[in-house]
Amino acid sequence: xxxxxxxxxxxxxxxxxGLAQAQDYPSKPVRMVLPFPPGGVTDxxxxxxxxxxxxxxxxxxxxxxxPGAGTVLASDTVARAPADGYTLxxxxxxxxxxxxxxxKVGYDAIKSFAPVxxxxxxxxxxxxxxKLPVKNVGELLAYARQNPGKLNYGSTGMGTSTHLEMxxxxxxxxxxxxxIPYKGSGPALIDMVAGQVDVMFDAWGSSGPFVKAGxxxxxxxxxxxxxxxxPDLPTVAESGLKGYEAMPWLGLMAPAGTPAPAIxxxxxxxxxxxxxxxxxxxxxxxxLDIIGNTPAEFASFLRKDIxxxxxxxxxxxxxxx
Length: 321
Hints:
The protein is α/β, with parallel strands linked by helices. It has helices at 2-15, 17-23, 41-57, 72-79, 94-101, 137-146, 161-173, 185-193, 204-212, 260-273, 277-285, 295-316, and strands spanning 30-34, 61-65, 87-92, 113-122, 124-128, 152-155, 178-181, 199-203, 217-221, 249-255, 288-290.
């Protein structure tokens, strides 16, 4: 009888090796793949998050910078990794838009990943050259409609969030502005300060210093609600374009099929980290608003976000460089 019970227990253990491994998770270092080079805001976030996660998980969390191909390289790396919780992706919004923009992408944004949590939204603002004779979103739209093709707008490149945000703005506002794509915020902002670019959606982390110095004027934030980082700045929706909403984000994802206990352990660790006053202050400095939602909420948001940008991309016939 005892032998039969032992045999049954052994068989049960062998039948559920994934469960046994998940209960011991993590038992070795975890790799966090980042689709951006070292030195930027996302890199600072990744390293601060990795350090805090290591303290809670009891294992090192190593940041692996894998920039390239419009963030596709990093996303594809994680999508192909073993679904054991030891390879994570600190994804940006582009994980969902890249398959819509590039002809050959080796992953499906919904099917290839298991969402852990949306860490934060990246605060984006609609900024203009101060010489432009408008003071709010409503006046900007009216001016653009009265002067079709006179205004131009900068972006950080074809198919980037700053490009898509303006295409959504143009579509909803029934206005025509000429697109000037740049390779990053830096050169676009410099040209906007010089008056060669009229308007641009951009991250507060990069445009904020110019706004604070009076070289640019921020009109609104892109999110549906006001930003915790910039509570006095209205949203695009409340200041002239009702219904407008765009939220660039950063979130933690694992390969599809990663055991639920591992996902839950990761989510719990990050949720605790995001409650720390020290981290909350850092996020504001970096121009990020904390989210920290559940895996299910993140999955639901991702589906809606992809559907929104799919419409914008198809309507404007956008193809990435």
